[in-house]
Amino acid sequence: MLNGQYPKLYFYSRLVRAKMFIDSHFSEPIDLDNISDEACFSKFHFIRMFRNSYDKTPHQYLISLRIEKSIELLKSNNSVADTCYAVGFESLASFSRLFKRITGLTPSAYAIQQQELRTKRARLPLSFIPACFAYKNGWTRKTAILDK
Amino acid sequence: MFTRMTHVNIYVLDQNSAFDFYTKKLGLKVITDVPMNAEARWLTVGMPGQPGFEINLTPIGAGMYFTKETAAALRDLVKKGTFGVGVFTCVDIYATYEELKAKGVEFTKAPTKEFYGTEALFKDDSGNWFSLAQLVEK
Hints:
The complex is a heterodimer of chains A (148) and B (138).
Chain A: H1 9-25, H2 32-38, H3 43-54, H4 58-75, H5 80-86, H6 92-103, H7 107-123, H8 131-136
Chain B: E1 7-12, H1 15-25, E2 29-35, E3 41-46, E4 54-59, H2 68-79, E5 84-89, H3 93-102, E6 106-114, E7 117-123, E8 129-135
């Protein structure tokens, strides 16, 4: 107990361990039944407790984590197919559908958008920095920062 | 009138170390990362649940924003833990506290019930401190 105000320490350490297991193994075929067993919860108790703490069921959390990671990979110029399998989806169709549901864009459209951003960032890095900061350093919109 | 706040600065001692702390330990996402010069980058992070709000991890270096003397003084103050920077809220403070502790985040106050909710305090890798809060619904 911490300051007499910290309830259910053991419960939280199990719950957090299960969540961190998902964080580390999201790209593998995760069986949520196994996670709840490992955490010593019944499956339904685990789902309810997880939702109370993270606002998502374990399955919803796993999907959102995979989509978050896929966004990072697409930003780093990975192909849509490589990204799909790297984050643990087994089919391009389900990856594409879930990606669009969460981000509003298909993975391909997102990849193209990111490619354009990368090109612009390399050409005009200042356009990504609020003008006040650039101005303070004597840079103008057309200045190539690295030349200074 | 103002509509919203989009950027805040957090002054950090080392941008690379801050990058690791804010992304790997706190779980924030990089929004923009572009070079400004040989020593510094424009590095902003944010939370997926709060789009449009960017935390600029600003290095305390002479020549960028500060004179040499100002930079030295500011580095000292940050290291000493002078500045409370802000409040992060969460759904479940006990779960978040346990997770951050497991990742090596240093807490100076464990979750404690206050009249506005439950609050803990933690420090970043530079010495800036934050409140982690689960607020009572108003």
